[in-house]
Description:
13 helices; 0% strand
Amino acid sequence: MYTSIKEIVEAANKRQMPLYALMIEQEMGITKASYEEVWSKMEKNLTTMENSINRSIEGDGVFSPTGLTGGDAVKIMNYRSKGKTLSGDLMVYGVQSSIGVNEVNASLGAICATPTAGASGTIPGVLFGIKDTLNLSREDMIHFLFTSALFGMVVANNACIAGAFGGCQAEVGSASAMAAAAAVEAAGGTPQQSSEAFSTALQNLLGLVCDPVAGLVEIPCVKRNAIGTANALVAADIALADVTNVINADEVIEAMYRVGRQMPRELRETGLGGVAATPTGIAIKSRIFGDKHIPR
């Protein structure tokens, strides 16, 4: 099993293999599953992502049982149709998709955790955002997911991917970095450039807290996935321009782990700090769960 980003890059260069192929090979070796079985499982993940994106823009959109989130993917789609987006249609379509997936998650619909449910919109947001520009085939899109999984595996094994353990930097931050690395490969970049994109994306979200209002994966989680998507696309472009980092990807992963350990519990998914502790956040929690659940 690959234990570092450096090891992954070196293996890809030495063996002249794409990053996604390393992940498929490793998965087959660990699980003893056939190539077809491994591929089929990842294709199912892609289908789930695609279905959730499509579901989010049907009619007026999807809404959570609490009524806190929903319908924003449709609003963004309508905004895009005017052709005057400030960030460009690729970026805004990625944002629309990322928000849409998380709205489906909040509405209790089916999503693919990438790497968690709270961060489930970031990777599909990037993937479907670049799909048309890069003319990605379905096979290319599945390759993208394998590459993102390869980088995510290193984060999960060397640091964390759970907001309760390391804050939102561990969820949306990791997802953004995974997506950035995969986007670079999809665009024809080198393994080292994928590593640089990963490092940039994770550094940009280092220290991001996990502060869900009322303890629910809605506010600010849904919109944070949009930022994760935009951050990944920018990081990928920077890397493809041959901009490098002073701090390498593996050291950034280690730093993220340390930062997560230094965060107080109030900022690690407890719903006791950050925007969850604002007057509005407390009022929402009281409305949904009652005053007995409000800390004194």
